[in-house]
Design brief:
Helix content: under 10%
Largest sheet: 3 strands, antiparallel
Structural class: mainly beta
Oligomer: single chain
Shape: globular
């Protein structure tokens, strides 16, 4: 089953799997991730013209050695 685009998930290891990025507040180019930008916008930072920010969940992991990641490639969520 494919993950839903821009969903956030906790992984039990300290790296981001393929097509996921660590939720560490980093800035991401809109040109490479336009679909995620259309869902997230500038909620977590960025200028909205060339980049946007990912949520910063560093230090909020319930288990040491785990990491929160956001899906950067997956199924675009459908409206009900």
């Amino acid at each position: 089953m494919d993950p839903i685009l821009a969903s956030i998930q906790l992984f039990a290891f300290n790296f981001a799997p393929l097509n996921w990025m660590v939720c560490d507040g980093s800035l991401v180019p809109i040109s490479q991730h336009a679909a995620v930008f259309s869902l997230v916008g500038t909620t977590y930072g960025g200028d909205g013209m060339t980049n946007f920010g990912l949520p910063n969940l560093k230090g909020k992991e319930p288990v040491p050695g785990s990491v929160f990641c956001i899906c950067m490639q997956g199924i675009f969520p459908q409206r009900p």
